[in-house]
Amino acid sequence: MKRAFNIIGVAVAALVMEGCIDLEPPSTASGSEGGTQDAGDADGTEDETGSTCGVGCDEPHELRGELMLLVNGRLSSADALYQSNVPLDEAGTYLGPSLHLYDPTRSCDDGTNACRLASLGNLRLDEGLGAISVQDGSLQKFTLRDLAWSPAAGLWAVSFDVKNDEWGVAQLQVDDWTRAGQIGIDRYAIVPGDALSPSTDPCYWQEGVSGLAFLGDELLLGVRGVGGSGIEANGAVFRVDLEVIAQGHCVYPNDVSQDPSYYACDVLCEPWSRFVPQLGIAGDMAPDAQAADLLGVVRSENAEIMPLERQVLYRMSAPADGEEYSEPVAEGIVAEGIVPGLDIEGLARIGGRLYGVDVLGKVYLFDEEGRRVTEHDDLGPLFPDHELSLRIRGATRVVVDEG
After folding, report:
1. DSSP bridge pairs for 356
2. Are 66 and 123 in contact (CB under 8 A)?
3. Closest Cα partner for 185 from 136, 243, 129, 141?
4. Mean pLDDT by groups of 10 residues along the chain of 403 residues
5. How far from the centroid of its chain's Cα atoms is residue 2's Cα?
6. Calpha distance 114→228 (Å, rounded)
7. pLDDT for res 36
8. End-to-end CA separation in angstroms for the chain
């Protein structure tokens, strides 16, 4: 949790908000650091995806229509432990995770798959996330874990503040979908609370938040079946209360940092669908073909329940009237040989077909009629030094029109 936040017993249940701050979305600077360079290559030289995204670049791309949007959550270099964002001139500010557009059906004139992928840019991590986050150095490791988009609500993400060990829900701002640019972000961290208190946000202590999707106008968040400190290990899907986010950020008396740009104003997560223990969303979610139910990529944490190298597609419906949550049902569509840690992390329905993408950029097609999963494409080699600096952490469907 954020080191400045004090929790004593179940006292958080009685948190009183000192004040709500309705912040304007952070502005985005003109130009961009592109999305495929590592932390040691921010000089504006051309990378293998054809982007010259040094600071100030403004690279157009040709991808239009219904596309998959991917997030690479790990910019790194040989001397950086784990993930390290690209420093900007101002101390404590960074270019963060990179976003990429992908057309799984496009044919390239040169016979490769390079024309299918384009950079949309990087997150700009600066004072828009608050002066305290700039000062405490937490933006260096700040990352995203999934994406969700809808025409009405725009682009959203699961955020993770690695330094302070805090999950959040973030709204992203893309000024121009037809070219690479710096992407704005407004983050709402989940409010801490005692694990035993019924008033604590049920997403707060989760160790494995891994999925995000819109079903109609509902934003839904999925977690693995690993639980967390003091909570059960049931995987689950939660409804995110966007009305809470509309209130802006709030300051709490027992947050000694008194950070006015960090925490949401109330509980964000409400139960929606619930798995048995040690089973849950280990990847991503997307609407079914009729946009009536939610489909999710599921993994077991226990080999006695399901082989550990297997991921299965499950169907989740909205809770019935009077019920707190629904029970997921397996679809019978299975991906075998998916090593833990290399999960199918992204899921998106493009042109009516369901595609998944794993951590290292391998793309899968979920054949819902044939009930099978097949390899479709491999994006990994399109990213420089991809074994070190590529970790796909989610995907979503977007529609890009002419600018």
Report:
1. 347, 364
2. no
3. 129
4. 52 38 31 32 38 58 98 71 83 96 98 97 97 96 97 98 96 97 98 95 96 98 95 98 98 91 98 98 97 98 97 98 98 97 97 98 98 98 85 98 79
5. 20
6. 40
7. 33
8. 41
Q: Where does 133-173 show beta strands of DSSP type E?
A: 143-150, 154-161, 166-173
Dihedral of CA atoms 317, 319, 324, 328 in degrees, nearest 10, equals -20
| Three-state DSSP class for residue 67 | strand
Greatest Cα-to-Cα distance within the chain, rounded to the nearest angstrom: 63
Tokens representing 240 are 């995110």
What are all long-range contacts of 8-12, with beta carbons under 8 Å and residues at least 24 apart? 8/254, 9/194, 10/194, 10/196, 10/197, 11/194, 11/254, 12/191, 12/192, 12/193, 12/194, 12/197, 12/199, 12/200, 12/254
The token pair at 75 is 């910019």
Q: For residue 191, give Cα distances in angstroms to 121, 156, 218, 282.
A: 30, 18, 21, 23
- Range list of H helices, 198-308: 242-245
Q: How far apart are CA 384 and CA 287, in angstroms?
A: 32
* CA distances from residue 168 to 132, 256, 362 in whole angstroms, order as listed: 16, 19, 27
